[in-house]
Write a structure and sequence with these properties.
Structural class of chain A: alpha/beta
Helix content of chain A: 25-40%
Shape of chain A: globular
Oligomer: homotrimer
Number of helices of chain A: 12
CATH superfamily of the largest domain in chain A: Aspartate/ornithine carbamoyltransferase
Strand order of the largest sheet of chain A: 9-8-7-10-11
Order of helices and strands of chain A: HEHEEEHEHHEHEHEHEHEHEHH
CATH topology of the largest domain in chain A: Rossmann fold
Chain lengths: 315, 315, 315
């Protein structure tokens, strides 16, 4: 694998899921693969799971890790071509990425949607600039529109927990007062669409994800209908794509409750975390044995470790 | 040792002090003990000594280290049960601790007193939540009411420097304009009370520490009386416990001066650092050969290294 | 080498440049030299290249690395002697440096000019305090008046690229709207003055560097005259030394353009980065094959690796 930015970089999703399960069973089996190789982790935004699970995975593979917060540790970066840089941004991505490529064998980058422009966010200017200018493999630690490390961990978790060959997997919107990115939802849809799961997306009107992520998934505005016989409930808030970045609804009826979980086929509850208890999901659901959120978060190590292994093998 | 949160986690203080001295004499003797083990250091507050000495100790034991500042690197955390998380805090400690426990074999946590409520601070909600939810050993890197890594280093330093079998050890309040936590003073008292030293605490009226820390130590409001024949002067400011978090006095007469040190049995001067020169203690005292503050800070490595060794042995 | 703070710490510049080239050719040849040695990197200011290249160099030499941002990670430091510390600064450099010296075998420090006082900046109070109090070797990661890791990388780059035995090297001021330190320009002049290159400095009136850095270099206020037959154009903005810290000119005629580069002997373009495209230099120059800025930044690893090797050999 050359990069791990979006699904196009992955030749075989199923094999990558199996690699994740294999890494989980044998965490230190490839300790020599990353020896004397350095991964730089560049954060434009906060992180807990991604920050630490990626460090852990890299360490498991024998790599050296350098972490940097853009903005507090270093300079603000400019991404537009041809501008006269006479404002707050001190360095252009052309130089920053190329320089980081001089120091690091692999670069991981987190850069959330900025919500200034749908077009800018959806052309993935930060991650694609790193791909273009760094000269080394890039790992997406959550970009404006995708979070592949999360999605791969999600599939690993479903594979571990599924009790039917073809589980019914439901991605449900849940309420939130802030405008959150679509990245996790987009990415989950993109990856599940590569499997043969029975996949349903449910959300209020106005919250349809971009068509390139939805593809042929079933979409319903009835959460109740979606939950019927479901094996996995994947809850996530996102802001509107069509009315870009807007909060059109905070409807508390979309919260996940024990009553709603009772409609399912004893489904596991999933969420990428962090999750706001009470607001998006009832404590009783998160604290129930059916909650898979900690296992899911734990699988973040094996997800990124699988991706890094694939990249290291081709370095 | 399962955790290193407070003195109840320690079975034998004297043996742990000896282990610290042993680690100092043989810093790299246990380099294999921590191999392929990861410690996560989680800072809710600033740190210099603790941050770096803990990293150094972990490295000496062969561990991998991951450091995270809560708030700037990651999300603000909620600690209360049953709340609807519709404010600034994006993640609950239940998830955060459990997730960190998935990535780390040991977790160190620094979380100062917030001074919003004596009850909240003294029930040690942050550290005890990590103990409850992380599922891995927790090391206290200074909590609301205690700083055991510091106290153990203090005892190691006294053992190195004492010239009498049963030295007279004086904990003295010194003035400061800010409301500082009681943690270092509490903890020092708690640990010294486990020794057979002659232990005296001196401070202005209104500054009595909580009874569970003072126990049977002698307490006097006369600094002069306390200093007579002392072998160790341990200076520290703290805010009032009874009028919780208040600055009742900034009396400059409580500053440590060469004249006061002359009352002692050629005592060593100790302070946990950082120390505000001139305000709490005269330059002449800090710059004298009797000042042990740098040695004491250096011993922070061996203190936490001893604790980590005990924890690693039972992992 | 005992320290790497300024040129006085270096016994033989040419040999150090050769060592840099040697490290570049053999990055892992000295992996055992730094084993079980810890370098602490202390940042009072932002950093990208220095932060990451120094970590990479230390890793290449087998060292353990601890990074700390002063102010956000730890406390604000006091540098003046004899003050009563009753303001915002919680710790004195006397303690902070001595304590860091207890934990680290080598300390790297970045502390920019503060522009409050020319005298304070030019006596290098931060770096010299570390030299005085830390008790271990200090590496200058850019100080108020110097940036030797950069200058050594610059000389390494010139040695790699020069096509004439005695190249003409031009340091040219370029416009900027902010008051930038003189450190990079000072240091470049200081180091080039140790070589036998034909060295010319050009800038508008009022921008003369301090005489101890200029020495016998040719100085001209005519950029055009300076560029004639030049082999290397080293662009950098700095604020006025004589009218200390002031921006006397933002004259866009001093920008580097393809037309100006055409005056040279097919010169390489150099800049320490970050560089503001359009403002200081035209995109066409930065994107031309003659631009050496990425190679120059890459050489930052070998520069500091050479210096660290020299220090480690004498530890």
């Amino acid at each position: 694998m050359k990069h791990f930015i979006n699904l196009n970089d992955v030749s075989d999703v199923k094999e990558l899921v199996l690699e994740g399960l294999h890494q989980k069973a044998n965490p230190l089996a490839n300790q020599n693969l990353g020896k004397n190789k350095t991964i730089g982790l560049i954060f434009f935004n906060s992180s807990l799971r991604t920050r630490i699970s990626t460090q852990k995975a890299a360490i498991n593979l024998g790599m050296d890790v350098i972490v940097m917060n853009v903005g507090s540790d270093s300079w603000q970066l400019e991404f537009e071509d041809g501008v006269i840089m006479d404002q707050g941004k001190a360095e252009h991505i052309k130089e920053a990425a190329a320089v980081l490529g001089q120091y690091c064998d692999i670069i991981g980058v987190r850069a959330f949607a900025e919500f200034k422009s749908q077009e800018d966010d959806y052309r993935e200017i930060v991650l694609e600039s790193f791909r273009k200018y760094a000269g080394v493999p890039i790992v997406n630690l959550e970009s404006a529109t995708r979070h592949p490390c999360q999605s791969l961990a999600d599939l690993i978790t479903i594979e571990e927990l599924k009790t039917r060959t073809r589980p019914k997997v439901v991605l449900t919107w849940v309420p939130h007062f802030k405008a959150l990115p679509q990245a996790v939802a987009n990415s989950f849809a993109e990856w599940v669409n590569e499997t043969d799961y029975d996949f349903v997306i449910t959300h209020p009107e106005g919250y349809d994800l971009a068509p390139q992520f939805v593809k042929n998934a079933k979409v319903t505005y009835s959460q109740e209908e979606a939950f019927a016989d479901a094996d996995f409930i994947y809850a996530k808030n996102w802001s509107s794509y069509s009315q870009y970045g807007q909060v059109l609804s905070q409807d508390p009826d979309w919260r996940i409750t024990p009553e709603k979980m009772a409609l399912t086929h004893n489904a596991n509850f999933m969420h990428c975390l962090p999750v706001r208890r009470g607001l998006k999901v009832a404590d009783e659901v998160l604290d129930s044995p059916q909650s898979a959120v900690i296992q899911q978060a734990g699988n973040r190590v094996w997800s990124v470790q699988a991706a890094l292994k694939k990249i290291l093998e081709e370095l």
